[in-house]
Design goal:
By secondary structure, this protein is of the alpha+beta class. Helices cover 29% and strands 32% of the residues. The chain is globular.
Length: 251
Amino acid sequence: MAGDAGLPGIRAIERATLAAVPAPRLLFEGPFVVRTFLGGTGRANSACSLDPAEDPALPERVARVEAFYARFGRACRFRSTPLDPIGLGPLLLGRGYREVDESQVLCGPLAGFARADDAVTVLDGPDPEWMEVVGTAEHQVPARRAEKLGMKDLLGMPAAWLLLHEGGVPAACAFATADGPLAGLFDLAVRPEFRRRGLGQRVMAAAGCWARGMGAEFAYAQVSCANAASLALNAGLGLRERYRYRYLVRA
């Protein structure tokens, strides 16, 4: 997209995302990294391509990916990005898949917004207060919450769970990873009674400050295209759309 000069490439962001949102079961099938966890977040329970080149064996690969998910009793799901092999979308639609949940991947320099905040505690895991706050966000089904609790033991990179207190009450949270120059910002949540006070920007700024201290230079975040409030918040941090992805799910 226009204005992307100097930002990390799509493949670099996708690789960082795979590491930041881990899964215990995986299969490498041609250009696809195929993963499953507990059936919660789409990123840890889908097949994602890292190579957009034409693949003559694509139909056979898709069948093997479907068999992988069938073995674990999961619905087959592909995470479709600009790195899809040529023809993947039409092939999946022809096999009865449907498109859902389009999201933007946002990216920008940490220097523009990272700053420390004395009200933010940096945790080394998702403690009960952090889980309480993140549970107020959308789509926090039991499987997704269980995956968040299990992530710490699967991560191979520095990570931080950040919690902002307001008046002694845990009010906002975020999760951050540091993977070389790339910082992943996830799980932003603000308790309903504390919203519209700028706490989301504050906890994200503190997450950026932590990541900068770990050597990261750029931040990326992934936000649903339907979440206007979060998109506006990230725009206020200087993060801009880098590309989009969606899921193709077998009916």
